[in-house]
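Quick one, T. Sequence first:
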Amino acid sequence: MNKTGYGHEMILAVSSLKPPHPRYRGRFAPSPTGPLHAGSLASALGSWLDARSNQGAWLVRIEDLDAPRCIAGMDQRILAQLQACGLTWDEEVLWQSQQLKTYQNVLETLYSDRQIYPCTCSRQQITSALSSQGKLRARNQEQIYPGTCRHGYVWQAQLPEAMPPSAWRLALKPEQVIRFSDAELGSQEQNLNTDVGDFVLLRADGIVAYQLAVVVDDARQGITHIVRGADLLSNTARQIYLQGILDYPTPQYRHLPLVLDPHGEKLSKQTQATEINTASEAAALQALQAAALHLGLRNLSDGQDQTIAEWLLQATHAWADRTKQISRTQN
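Structure tokens:
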């Protein structure tokens, strides 16, 4: 999406992004940058079981905004893998790449409210600014944006017609400490001002940032429960904050334990994690059993003389028992 081509007529009111969905609605949102591996299957299975054990709907969304990283045809491959594992969805699949106008409209609204501003800082400039303040970044820790471009920026009545290549950041209000209860991990807290800083909603290359797209899509689809890997836990406070300023409801979050490789690192497509085998029903069932074992479902049958559908029904009951036990320990 080209940030200089927004236009100035609001086509879709933000309030229309909040359809009423009273019952449980969950989702699985893979990126088509590689096939499902053991880690992504565990997240998909946990999300599916949570929806089914609550008699809810389960949706699939393809997060394909980062086009340079997406692989042609991988979306269909992922969908075929899910179907082979019996993880069927209840509504039409949504592709983020087809929702660009919706994201544009939300950015227009945020700008008119003076809540986003352009940022031309490079990673090196941010690092240098933090170093000059004596703030060193730990390994694998995100850079805390020091607010360089925010200081002195004068908002206009509407988005500028032309801008140099720049990201667009959300201007945080002061003292934003976000607290929430995670259904898996219990009480969580993050100070956005000191731990994150003003974060990006539109990248300098014109690609909508994950934080904005996921919040807008969850609201549009009426998602009430989000079950995903613990690697996304650090994003949750930002998403809750953004939900608040857009007047969206906040879903219930559950962050599942990650599947790790022999070196203790998260399995990922970037590290060439092995694709799950769904060439036969027996192979798909074996992959599901491994995912269930990782999720703590230890009293399931071995699946012999069972169809995948029969095994999933048994797993759904086991998941309900698991979540009740976790809830008791938190209370």
